[in-house]
Automatic annotation (TrEMBL):
It comes from the Bacteria. The lineage of its organism: Bacteria, Bacillati, Actinomycetota, Actinomycetes, Micrococcales. This is Histidine ammonia-lyase. Residues 504-527 are annotated as: Disordered. Coiled coil: none annotated.
Length: 548
């Protein structure tokens, strides 16, 4: 089993979050992480000894921030913070999501700014490794620290509430006992620290990015198969086209499309192909490339937050101070997920348009083809997919609407702005799943048309997807409905596409390393400047790639 070591000096990656949350990789704390956590804890101990007022340590919370808490009730006060905030509503979050949230909270603690003691920080990794999954209601955060969400996890840590162990719901005390763990005792400020982080939008955001990455790859496959079905021109994907526009993301998609279509009949100059295709095909590199650019920015933002501290107050191991902050406001994450939904909605729009192109090609072919003479394995019932695609596209456009502007002022005006980041993440995941259905449907419809043509050679990257559809069709009855084929083939098509967060540089290869740092301090993603350089250097780089 894979083990991931959390370190202060080495960033945790988005793909590692997936391996821990989805594949149950084990978690350990590196020596420098332990040292950093201990240094942060010492700041709180020193503040209490000096009688320094620290928010949440010896004062109230929110609008009671200036109310002093007596020293003789400080320990109970931390328990009260957890219990009072554990008021989530709705169905339980799935196990992978809870694991991602727990990991994100622990990753933040590794920075040393939370003030957590080492035993409490280690307890997150112990629960993760033992398979104890707190029962966390879905609704509990407005995107200004995930208070209700993290309080449900903290409740399990102190033996309150309920949790799951091996899929069985138990009292938290029973789950911990059966896993060989004892409930923890919260000390100074720890009741606040265990509920004060944006672990939902960071942890589940990392899972969402894996899902979006898979969808972006699937979109390229769907477009490439449609091009083969519609006898499309490869000219818009020529490397020199991207050179003229100086767009790296466009160049990446164009290169990926050409890689998928390597060996395809479309590469034969003697084939009769379209001189100029509809924009839903001709601008795939531009539209898909723009979505990838938005994705890269968002991935950098989420990975940055994953390796940062959102604590308020923060306890600085470097200066020995406890500072009030607004770091718990994940505005960049919230706006990033707003943006990626719009980008994905555009992928849905051109997917729906491409299905229309296939439909016209299909019916014109069917009208002139004797069904009895079709080759073996031909798929006869692709169905009226355009109608379903239009319906899903309408739903996706609704999901793409902004959600981050809707949180009211709370806590007597003290908490008068919030980001709704968790809602933005949830809507992105829902939209992504719908878009997967559309793209898989496009692949199935394109494959149905291509199955009528025994004389065409498909690309090295598109052929495996075509083969999956044909195999799924052979497994069905001769008179089955097209929807049954779609239901059987869709999960296979999605699963055969990687959920690794890194998108391709041309094909699905290793990511580029940022030239200024070698990637040592930046995690997996190099920062993307707000202003994209149009300097000649980038043009020369793309031109050299085109020439190569």
């Amino acid at each position: 089993m894979k083990t991931v070591s959390l370190s202060f000096s080495s960033p945790l990656t988005l793909d590692e979050v997936q391996s821990i949350a989805l594949d149950a990789a084990e978690v350990t704390l590196a020596p420098d992480a332990r040292e950093r956590i201990a240094l942060g804890r010492a700041v709180l101990t020193d503040a209490l000894e000096k009688g320094t007022r620290v928010y949440g340590l010896n004062t109230g919370l929110g609008h009671t921030r200036d109310v002093e808490i007596s020293r003789d009730v400080l320990d109970q006060y931390q328990v009260d913070i957890v219990v009072s905030h554990a008021f989530g509503i709705g169905p339980s979050l799935p196990e992978p999501e809870v694991r991602a949230i727990m990991l994100a909270r622990l990753a933040g603690a590794v920075r040393g700014y939370s003030g957590l003691s080492l035993p409490v920080a280690e307890f997150y990794s112990q629960m993760l490794n033992a398979g104890v999954v707190p029962n966390v209601p879905r609704e509990g955060s407005i995107g200004a620290s995930d208070l209700g969400t993290l309080a449900a996890i903290a409740a399990t840590m102190i033996g309150r509430g309920t949790a799951f162990l091996n899929g069985t719901k138990l009292s938290s005390a029973q789950a911990l006992q059966q896993a060989g763990l004892q409930p923890i005792t919260l000390g100074l400020k720890e009741g606040l620290a265990v509920v004060s982080e944006n672990s939902y939008s960071i942890g589940i955001g990392a899972l969402a990015l894996g899902e979006v990455a898979r969808t972006l790859r699937l979109a390229d496959v769907a477009a490439a198969l449609t091009m083969e079905a519609a006898r499309s021109s490869l000219t818009p994907f020529d490397p020199e086209v991207a050179v003229a526009r100086s767009s790296r993301s466009q160049a990446d998609v164009a290169a990926n499309i050409l890689s998928l279509l390597e060996g395809s009949y479309l590469t034969d100059p003697l084939q009769a192909i379209s001189l100029q295709d509809p924009l839903s095909i001709r601008t795939v590199a531009q539209v898909h490339g723009a979505a990838r650019a938005v994705f890269d920015n968002l991935a950098f933002t989420v990975e940055t937050e994953l390796n940062a501290s959102d604590d308020n107050p923060m306890t600085s191991p470097d200066t020995g101070r406890a500072l009030s902050t607004g770091n718990f406001h994940p505005m960049e994450i919230a706006l990033g997920f707003e943006s990626i939904r719009v980008a994905l909605a555009h992928l849905a729009l051109i997917c729906e348009r491409r299905v229309g192109v296939i439909g016209m090609e299909f019916w014109s072919s069917r009208a002139s083809t004797d069904v009895a003479s079709l080759p073996g394995g031909a798929i006869l019932t692709p169905g009226l997919g355009g109608y379903a695609h239009a319906a899903i596209s309408a739903r996706i456009r609704t999901l793409a609407n902004p959600v981050t502007l809707n949180i009211p002022s709370l806590d007597h005006g003290q908490e008068d702005h919030a980001t709704a980041a968790p809602l933005a993440v949830d809507f992105t995941r829902e939209l992504t799943a719908k878009l997967n259905d559309m793209l898989a449907g496009e692949i199935i419809i394109a494959s149905a048309l291509l199955s009528w043509r025994a004389d065409v050679t498909l690309g090295a990257g598109t052929r495996p997807y075509f083969d999956v559809v044909v195999q799924a069709a052979k497994e069905g009855a001769a008179d089955e409905l097209g929807g049954e084929l779609v239901a059987r083939a869709t999960p296979r098509l999605v699963e055969m596409t990687s959920r690794g967060v890194h998108l391709s540089r041309g094909a699905d290869s290793a990511p580029d390393v940022h030239p200024s740092t070698g990637g040592a301090d930046l995690g997996s993603f190099a920062p993307t400047p707000l202003y994209r350089s149009r300097k000649k250097a980038l043009t020369d780089e793309l031109h050299n790639a085109a020439a190569g």
